[in-house]
Amino acid sequence: MEDSTVERRRFLEIATGASMLAGVPSDIHAGDVKGQFPQRRLGHTGEMVSMVGLGGYHLARPNVEEAESIRIVRAAIDNGLNFLDNCWDYNDGQSEVRMGKALRDGYRGRAFLMTKIDGRDKKTAAHQIEESLRRLETDHIDLLQFHEIIRMTDADRIFAAGGAMEAALDAKKAGKIRYIGFTGHKSPDIHLKMLQTAAEHHFRFDSVQMPLNVMDAHYNSFEMKVLPVLVRNDIGVLGMKPMGDHIILESKTATPIECLHYAMNLQTSVVITGCDSMRILDQALQAARSFRPMKPAEVESLLAKTAQAAQNGKYEQYKTTHTFDGTYQNPQWLG
């Protein structure tokens, strides 16, 4: 009886915290205007971006034809989803190539385009930035992020003399990128090290991307450790892996819409989700349109259902294994 009381108190603390962090400011819910796709503010940048973002990796999976991936990107933009995610290393560059083709015919001007690079030194990072610009068929990237910050040493390498940050700042000065952020999925402590190192160099990131989902709340949690820091410093919050690349769905503890709504209920600027079909895109669009701030009791109920499955990170393999670590398997990408 005592154990269950403690567990319930813990759920209530998390649920209340999630409710407090939910997007309450008026500019966060600016997309509630009738007929407008829900949008939120990207932190201190002031940019308004769609509440849900289109993940780039899935666009070039082996089972997705190029014509279909182009159709998905354009349908997303036509429906008001303007935040596009990508990465220099996704599917050997094909994800960027396909997105570049989709952004022809006027679509580029309607999108907020984000991509990521792996390079940790200036030369490698500069080369990857140029390749991404070429593949995406654009003269500028709205948001460039340092990808897979999954090692405690990554921050020091990026901010060192001759490090990748120098390449990013040069590209920004040249008008090739507008904003700078970072992403990672391994440990909240590594994210905090990156933020601390940035502060020591008198630099504030424009965005930070991390896993935010119904499992993360229970285990080595980015929501508990990193999200409050980002909110306090008005840094754009990019939630990713709302379904853990579908692995969370295998637990049978939450539906896709519940997973998306949980992440949207946090003070995220964008919740990025991979779409490899029009059906999955429609699901993401519907989740954004139907979202309403969750009550603490609703959050508590969902967390209670996922608590046992979340133990030991079984359904968060990006934290507990190297399965999702592209730069671990391809260290040459780091430079």
Number of helices: 14
Identify the overall geometry. Answer: globular
Fraction of residues in helix: 40-55%
Order of helices and strands: HEEEHEHEHEHHEHEHHEHEHHHH
Largest sheet: 8 strands, parallel
User: Quick one: how many beta strands?
Assistant: 10
State the distance separating the first and last CA atoms: 55 Å
Detailed description of the structure:
There is one protein chain. By secondary structure, the protein is α/β, with parallel strands linked by helices. Helices cover 42% and strands 14% of the residues. The chain has 14 helices and ten strands. The strands form two sheets. An eight-stranded parallel sheet has the order 3-10-9-8-7-6-5-4. Helix 1 packs across helix 12 and helix 10 crosses helix 11. The longest helix is centred in the N-terminal third of the chain and has 20 residues. It is globular and about 50 Å long.
Features:
two-stranded antiparallel sheet; 335 residues; alpha/beta; 14% strand; eight-stranded parallel beta sheet; 42% helix
What is shown here, in short?
The chain is α/β, with parallel strands linked by helices and 335 residues long. The chain has helices at 2-21, 66-78, 94-102, 122-135, 154-159, 164-173, 188-200, 222-225, 227-232, 256-265, 278-290, 296-310, 317-320, 326-329, and strands spanning 39-41, 48-50, 52-55, 83-84, 112-117, 141-146, 177-183, 207-211, 236-240, 270-274. Strand 4 (83-84), helix 3 (94-102) and strand 5 (112-117) form a beta-alpha-beta unit.
